[in-house]
User: What shape does this take?
Amino acid sequence: MTRTVTLICCLVAAVGLAFYIATHPFHPENRLQDLQLTIGYGLLIIIFFLGFVILADVVTGKIDLSLLLTEHGGGASMSRLQLLIFTFVIGLSLFLIVAGTGKFPTSIPKEVLMMLGISATTYGVSKGIQAGGGLDNKDGSKGGGAPQA
Amino acid sequence: MYIGVLPSGPNPGPFSIVMRTLSTLAYWEGFILLGGFFGTVLWKLLTGGISLEQLLEGDVRHPNAAEGDSTSASPGRAQSLVSTIFVAAYYLLQVVQNPKEFPKLPPDLIAVLAGSQALYLGGKAQAMLLGPLLDFLKRRTP
Assistant: This one.
């Protein structure tokens, strides 16, 4: 219900803003710039509300993250934690770079890709080893642990 | 911090002002959403909302034991955690000091990370796969 109301508010705000810019042009001779503004503000509003709904659900526990790092056998997974840390680091770096320069970086160094590749490969190989070893749950039972990635 | 996309003149027009406002709003939106997600996950990690139980314990397979697998403290996991945190902190510091482009990591650091992961995976494979393999070979040998 709350989600529906938020989405409706988001769409109404975006459409209202588009209507306002359409009826109050900043550049009557160049409407393309008005279109850019409209799309920019519309996307800003929609992304903010969608992100905010997801964030609110995570905070309130509607989206359950308690098993985010839990592997099939029941304990926390080192490779999942590593992937999480690297994802945060790269995401934060991208935000800082875009905020610092005002544009997306033109290239991504191969070292960054290698870092993420090593992490993702570790996760994949780790799952393979677990599958090959037929890991039981740490309580001794077979299977039925945390959901797999 | 750069948050505008248009050069500021002595008398900026309405379009320039609105465009600059859009950039500022986009900056704060990214800050709030990304900061919120990072902060929430970090908070849940610290308060136990995301379980880190048995993070430094490795699985040891006992194929002949009735109780199945067991766990024990794993040096491989510990060194993997240390190297991961070190590389992540190094990278983040580089970005904070020069937020103009993605910094390049020294090849030696990449090698250390790869070696650390190889060690972790080797230990895990040895603990989980070597025992059954030896049992299998023992059964096949007359």
